[in-house]
Write a structure and sequence with these properties.
Elements: H1 5-9, H2 29-33, H3 35-38, H4 50-74, H5 83-94, H6 102-115, H7 127-139, H8 167-177, H9 185-201, H10 207-218, H11 226-236, H12 242-276, H13 278-281, H14 289-299, H15 306-329, H16 332-344, H17 355-379, H18 384-407, H19 413-423, H20 426-437, H21 443-450, H22 454-469, H23 484-491, H24 497-521, H25 527-543, H26 553-564
Helix pairs in contact: 4-12, 5-7, 7-8, 8-9, 8-10, 12-15, 14-15, 15-17, 15-18, 15-20, 16-18, 18-19, 18-20, 19-22, 19-23, 20-22, 20-25, 22-24, 22-25, 23-24
């Protein structure tokens, strides 16, 4: 099936028609003009042919057979205590095929961790061995002490200067340092030292090494979305082992199969969105179902979670629509009434709302009931109240911002950021993800989820700060948007914009450390939910890297490659 993705992204400007409701005095015409840009993420569905369906079936069967061959003939020959097994796991993860070998990977990591129970014991003597073991242990929820890197430091706690000649070792150290948590000074020094060395050496090494170093600095594995980086990995990986070619075959088939699934899912989302009719009634709002789907794809990267990806895209679409209502169109009185209606959650008490708000609330009300019903039927738990609470929190956060900007009584930077982590919409995405996954559904976990824990608030902080750091505003929207950088400069008039941006980047690093700590020490949530939280944080930079034309060239390139290119 072919989606007219390229033409939709780069299509001519759509005709903009004024909404039926009369514009308020607060209506922002510059944001309406921004639809010329934002509508390029709309999608046009096409029917799948029977030949495509048949091809997908064959592909799935061939992939399943190849995975079994690798498990039975290749994986079983690996010594569970050898370093080779960890190298294989690293390649699987980077090729985005690890979910086919999850049981085998968990067994090997567990065995290796048991062998390394004391500090430094069993980690190896070389930087590469120690750094990879450390990184894989932490990625899989096993605490590895930062002290394993002490052997590479001097009496002052600084990394030994002679290490800088080992470029591959510096890459490994930098990758491992990304899994640091709050208060780990050795890892902080490791990141600082290796990052400085790699930046200095990047122009002094061969072209292959140059690409590897640049990609590591820009996209360290732990903070990158594997689906988007897998295609480039083999170009950086020069290894002649036979198992590499076997993994490459699996990766190629997996990539082709995923493409088929994504086309089908996007088609279903397009039909749902078109049938909903919101794009016609709320013409001032963003019309970006393909972009919304990418968030769902990040949260639910496992190929088996197709239904969940489709369902999650629906509430994500409403985050954007309600954000536009607050940021573009509604008066403060109207926004207050809308928030009160959401907090009451009463479909019969909408008389005071403008028509466009009535339509939006009805869609929100019906969608929340629909998702709650599906979760109950599949997992035996009715999430209606936690989902309602999430939407109430979002609208309250939006209203707080509207009141700030409407009154001119602006908040301090930290107050803004605390509210902004909620108004980012991440809470909505991850609460819905938790219930759609249906893993770990206990009273205790539901209560924790309802309190916006670190596993949710940390990605929310990361999103809010990246949004504010964007080189251009979202789709050239010039409505009532705040900026953490601006508030920092208001709190500290002596700060330059560059210093304020550095502080925002430091806040992002701190949020990542909290998220790492949550994944490492608080294991009440199922790994699939933990991964959803991590992947959401990982994809944020790509979703907010706007250029001077208010476009997302990096994201557009990745999505085009994902939907249309073949695996390298």
């Amino acid at each position: 099936m072919a989606l007219h993705f390229v033409s939709c992204i780069f299509s001519s400007k759509p005709q903009i028609v004024a909404p039926k409701a009369q514009h308020s005095q607060y209506f922002n015409s510059s944001k309406l003009d921004a639809l010329h840009i934002s509508n390029k993420w709309n999608i046009v569905p096409e029917e799948r042919s029977s030949a495509e369906v048949y091809k997908t079936g064959n592909l799935r069967r061939n992939l399943r057979e190849k995975v079994e061959v690798v498990k039975n003939e290749l994986w079983k020959s690996v010594d569970e205590s050898s370093f080779k097994g960890l190298q294989m796991i690293d390649v699987m993860q980077r090729l985005n095929i690890d979910y086919y070998f999850q049981d085998e990977i968990e067994a090997l990591i567990g065995k290796q961790y048991a062998n390394c129970s004391s500090v430094g014991s069993g980690y190896g003597n070389h930087i590469h061995q120690i750094a990879l073991r450390f990184r894989l242990f932490r990625q899989h929820g096993y605490f590895a002490s930062q002290e394993v890197f002490e052997k590479f430091t001097n009496k002052e706690g600084k990394f030994k200067p002679e290490l800088s000649e080992n470029i591959k070792g510096m890459v490994d150290i930098y990758e491992a340092s990304q899994l640091g948590i709050t208060g780990e000074h050795i890892l902080a020094e490791a990141e600082k030292f290796s990052g400085k060395v790699l930046k200095e050496k990047v122009d002094c090494i061969d072209s292959h090494g140059d690409k590897l170093v640049k990609r590591t600095l820009e996209h360290p594995f732990h903070k990158s979305f594997a689906l988007f980086t897998a295609r480039n990995f083999l170009g950086d990986f020069h290894n002649k082992n036979l198992w590499v070619s076997s993994f490459r075959e699996i990766a190629k088939m997996n990539f082709s199969l995923l493409q088929c699934s994504y086309h089908r899912e996007i088609d279903q989302i397009s039909r749902w969105w078109s049938g909903l009719g919101l794009a016609n009634e709320l013409v001032y709002a963003r019309n970006q179902p393909l972009k919304w789907y990418i968030w769902s794809l990040a949260c639910f990267a496992d190929p088996t979670l197709s239904e969940e990806r489709i369902e999650l895209t629906k509430p994500i679409s409403l985050i954007y629509i309600i954000d536009d209502i607050f940021d573009v169109y509604g008066t403060l009185d109207e926004l207050t009434l809308f928030t009160e209606a959401v907090c009451r959650w009463d479909i019969t008490a909408l008389e005071q709302l403008p028509d466009y708000m009535k339509t939006c609330f009805r869609v929100l009300y019906n969608l929340t009931n629909e998702i709650s019903s599906k979760v109950y039927q599949k997992h035996g738990w009715n999430p209606i109240h936690p989902l309602q609470n999430a939407w109430k929190s979002l609208c309250k956060a939006f209203l707080v911002e509207a009141k700030w900007f409407g009154s001119g009584k602006l908040p301090g930077a930290e107050e803004y950021l605390e509210n902004g982590s909620v108004s980012s919409g991440v809470h909505i995405m991850l609460v819905h993800s938790f219930f759609l996954l249906g893993e770990g559904l206990t009273e205790e976990n539901v209560e924790i989820i309802d309190r916006n824990p670190n596993i949710i608030s940390s990605p929310g902080t990361i999103l809010r700060l990246w949004d504010d750091l964007g080189s251009a505003q979202d789709e050239n929207q010039k409505g009532n948007d705040g900026s953490y950088v601006d508030y920092v400069m208001m709190d500290k008039p002596e700060y330059t914009r560059e210093v304020a941006r550095e502080r925002a980047m430091s806040k992002i690093c701190d949020a990542w450390k909290r998220l790492n700590q949550e994944c490492l020490f608080h294991k009440q949530f199922h790994p699939t939910f933990t991964k959803a939280s991590l992947n959401l944080a990982r994809i944020v930079p790509l979703m907010y890297s706007y250029d001077e034309k208010q476009s997302l060239p990096g994201l557009e390139e990745q999505v085009k490659s994902l939907l249309y290119d073949s695996f390298l």
